[in-house]
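G., the chain you wanted modeled:
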Amino acid sequence: MAAVYTFGLAEILVADVLETGLMPATADMVKIGEVLQDSASLTQEEGDKTEIFEQSNPIPKVVIEQAGTTTIAFNLMNVDPAMLGEYIGGAVNATSKEWEFDGKKKSVNKALFIKPEQGIYFKLPKASMSAVIAGDLNQSGLLTLNFTVTPLSPGDGLKSILAG
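Predicted structure as tokens:
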């Protein structure tokens, strides 16, 4: 089998979660925005491991493992009022076109397709997306919308992460 090396980020596509729990067709997904260079990461935590020992034996008889949480993080650099309303909360005023935030932050569920420049892709049929505004307001800074994404169970018997 040929070696596969995954690197770079081509784009992140999003769509509304399907009621079936299945992954939406790629043609029905849209690019979420312009991801800031070198801001995207995918991390899977170690998880929990429980070892069960026989009395006076230092070698475990049974090891029970639970997978750690997988987290995807990235920052968008083309922030606009509509994005702020959709991913943080609040609304865009129809007259002024300004984002109006009432302080009530929300978490959004979307389907994601993470396409690398090369290698394996990742599909999340249902994921919780949380976003915050961050950045330095100076000549060399950039205001970004920083996302933390956690895969969710899309339904009974369905997988939360697909890669290929």
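DSSP finds one helix and twelve strands in the chain.

Shout if anything looks off.
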